[in-house]
Design brief:
11 helices, five-stranded parallel β-sheet, 56% helix, 257 residues, Rossmann fold
C-alpha cells in the first residue's frame, strides 16, 4: 500500500468512478482498500465490501427521494408512536400493515378518531414504511387535494392532474371530514378514490364516523358511494377520543420538559 505509484492509481480510480457515476466507490475505495490490506482480506472480500457500500448508499438515496416526493408534513415512524399511551390501538396490527401487503392487495386503510389521537402519525409511519419498500407514495390533506383539482379544472388540466395522482402506489389523504366540501370537491375526491378501487392502495384519516359524513358531504348519494369505495375490504382502525398529543404534553410538563 506504500508503493510510490499508489497516489497515481488513486487519481486514476477517482476519474474512472466519476465517469462510471459511482460516487460511493469514489468516496470509500481508499479507506476500504487500506482496511482490506491491514486485515489481509482477499480481493473478492474487498470488492464485495466496496460494491455493498455503493448499493447501500444508492438505496438510502432512493428512499430519501421517495420521502421527498411523498410531501409528508414530517417523517414519523411506528417506533416513535407511544402505543402504551394508546393501548386500544393494536401495535401488532400496525406492524402487520407496515410490512406493506395491503399495498400489493390494493386494500384501503382508514384511521377514525378525534383530533390528537395519533391518526396522522400512524398514516405517516405507514407512508415512510412504504417508501422504504420502494413504493411511490403521495401525501395530501383532503382540502389540499381538492383545491389542487379545482385549480386544475380552472386551467383545463383536470384529466392530467387526475392521472398524476393515480400513478402513486399509495395515496395518503389526511383530515377527511374536518372541513365541509362543496359538491364539486366531493365529486373530485370520489373520482380519485374510485379510480384506485381494487387497483391501488389509499390511506385516509377522518374525525367522523361514516354515519356523520353527510355533515361534510351533503349529497347523500355521493356520500354513500364514497363510503362504499373507502370501506370495501378496508382495514379500519379506531384511534379513539383521548388526545394522544394532550397526554404527551401533560407528560412533558410532569417531567419538567
Amino acid at each position: 500500500m506504500k508503493n510510490a505509484s499508489v497516489p497515481v492509481q488513486y487519481e486514476v480510480i477517482q476519474q474512472y468512478c466519476k465517469r462510471l457515476c459511482v460516487p460511493t466507490v469514489a468516496a470509500q475505495f481508499r479507506r476500504l482498500a487500506e482496511s482490506a490490506f491491514a486485515q489481509q482480506q482477499s480481493h473478492l472480500d474487498y470488492l464485495e465490501a466496496l460494491l455493498a457500500a455503493e448499493v447501500e448508499e444508492r438505496e438510502q438515496n432512493a428512499i430519501q427521494r421517495r420521502l421527498k416526493e411523498a410531501h409528508l408534513p414530517k417523517v414519523k415512524t411506528l417506533d416513535e408512536f407511544r402505543f402504551r399511551e394508546a393501548p386500544h390501538i393494536s401495535a401488532a396490527k400496525l406492524k402487520e400493515l407496515s410490512e406493506g401487503a395491503y399495498i400489493s392487495r390494493a386494500e384501503p386503510v382508514l384511521f377514525i378518531g378525534d383530533s390528537g389521537t395519533g391518526k396522522t402519525h400512524l398514516l405517516t409511519a405507514l407512508c415512510v414504511a412504504a417508501c422504504r419498500q420502494k413504493h411511490r407514495v403521495r401525501f395530501a390533506t383532503a382540502t389540499g387535494l381538492i383545491n389542487e383539482l379545482v385549480e386544475a379544472q380552472h386551467q383545463q388540466a383536470l384529466g392530467r392532474a387526475l392521472r398524476r395522482w393515480s400513478r402513486y402506489d399509495l395515496l395518503a389523504i389526511d383530515e377527511v371530514g374536518y372541513v365541509p366540501m362543496a359538491e364539486v370537491g366531493a365529486e373530485y375526491l370520489f373520482q380519485v378514490i374510485a379510480d384506485r378501487a381494487e387497483k391501488a392502495a389509499v390511506i385516509l384519516t377522518t374525525n367522523l364516523p361514516f354515519s356523520e359524513w353527510t355533515k361534510v358531504i351533503p349529497n347523500a348519494r355521493l356520500c354513500k358511494a364514497l363510503v362504499d369505495r373507502i370501506a370495501d375490504q378496508a382495514h379500519i382502525i379506531d384511534t379513539g377520543k383521548d388526545s394522544y398529543r394532550f397526554k404527551r404534553t401533560q407528560q412533558k410538563q410532569k417531567n419538567g420538559g
